[in-house]
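user: can you give me the structure for this one chain? tokens are fine.
assistant: on it. calling the predictor now.
[tool input]
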Amino acid sequence: MFRRFISATLLFLSASTCTYGQTDYPKNYFSPPLDSDLVVVGTFGEIRPDHFHTGIDLGTGEMEGWPVKASADGWISRIKVDSRGFGKALYITHPNGFVTVYGHLKSFEEPVASLVRKQQDKNEVYEVELFPKKNELKVKKGQIIALSGNTGNTSGPHLHFEIRDEVTEQPINPLLFGWNVPDNIAPVLKNLRIFPVREAGMLDKCDTAITYEILPTEGLYILNTADFIQASGSIAFGFETVDQIDGSAATLGIYTAEFYVDGQLAYQWRMDRLDFDEQRYVNAHIDYLSKVRDGYTIERCHRLPGNHFSLIYSDTNATGYSIFGDDAAHDLKFIARDFAGNASQIEFQVIAYSTLFNNPYLPRPEGSVLVSNQKGIAVHKANLDVTIPNGAVFDNFFYTDHESKNETLISSQFRIGNDQVALGLPITVAIKPNVSVADSLKSKAVVVRMDDDKRPLALASYWENDFVTARTKKFGNYGVMLDTVPPVVSKEYVPADLNTSRGLIVQYKMKDALSGIKSYRGMIDGKWHLFEYDAKNDLLIADIAHLTQNREHPVEITATDQVGNTTIWKSAFWY
């Protein structure tokens, strides 16, 4: 029979403990940028691909064109038009030391609209970035500054809103500024993942992680397992949680989490403030393997050795690892809370058995080399060079590579590392082609990563001696291809098309099969014409309302990819 053990050993780097810095942010200074009831469709600090979400997303009814208002008095300090990222975005600096950001806009109001168009016409480009002088473009609280849209990297129409510290440029959770967002829905707990430290911990007779489903039952959460959880040695934990909010069907991230071992707070994090320079640590905060393999977003209640994120953890000295070195039962509790304070929790036990260490560790991969956060490696082979710098990986892993044939490549294909291991810094991959490449074609050679469906993803590449070289932030399958095919342009919509009406615009598809679009230039009636580029949909869009009507208008689009292949596509439309 097991005795109740009061506490397991919790690992700290030092005996000191710190708490979150208490900051009194001004309440009621910033008003919501939309007139309608606030519908939050994305929360601050949510896990996004390779980054934390640095603002909140406000729903616009899946429509574009909602009036966007300045949240407070200030001056427009930055204007950006981008085919990716935030798309069309405005930045307003306020006299109290904060900057508000408004992203994915459809259009700007005057005088910004004319200022942007003047710069676009001058440079004959769509993408521009302007930094007006202080107080040159003053705005008042509640003044309409733009219309909401769907520009940039989006999955649907909405407004992205941020509040940043003017000095540090760190984004701050906008809900800390006193907005009233009704929320009576508690977070949902979905999965528990337990991580024995490799060769230092055991879980159910092995030193590999296991995921347990969490189920709601009679107002409580329980683990979907009939067996006791047995562990010994160095063990860590992580949980998958989601949240919802009143009036929104979106799946959201939580605000804060607490993890207790035998009644002691072992780990805590809270999404108050982020730092753009530390975004890479998102893949250390989550279990990257579960994300890429299973689609689970497991947020760790422990810090990997290479996770140096400084702002969301209540105690930067706490590692969150527990040492179960006894034969006893241990009580564990996880609490997830949203910003409104709604909470969900699960309590469970881990039974520590020291005899679990009688089982063998998972064998190391044959021919592998240990890579740690503190020490990278350089691999030099006949047709492959790989450099993994210090600090590139977040935790220890055993590096291997494997060479195989791929008829679509002009080199061997190399499986480099493990694509379920996250990288925090780029590694360098250099591959030697197995065919002779003429000097005239060397600029067309690119390192490609073959993703799961075998579609090649080209990287910015260069020659170094006889190797084609690139930097990448992912392990995986790599090789070399020649990109000699220029972009393809085709008609998507013109006003003369029957049974459709998209307004006074023309649309053309612009795609490149490998290295991607580098630049384009559109002309109508023999003159440069502004074509907006919607990169996520491969669309070029031009407003033709001011053109002369009842005549044919010749169109010429020149598209160039990243290695210099160019298409000059000509057509015409009647308007």
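assistant: here you go. The first strand starts at residue 9 and ends at 12. Helices lie at 112-123, 282-285, 288-294.
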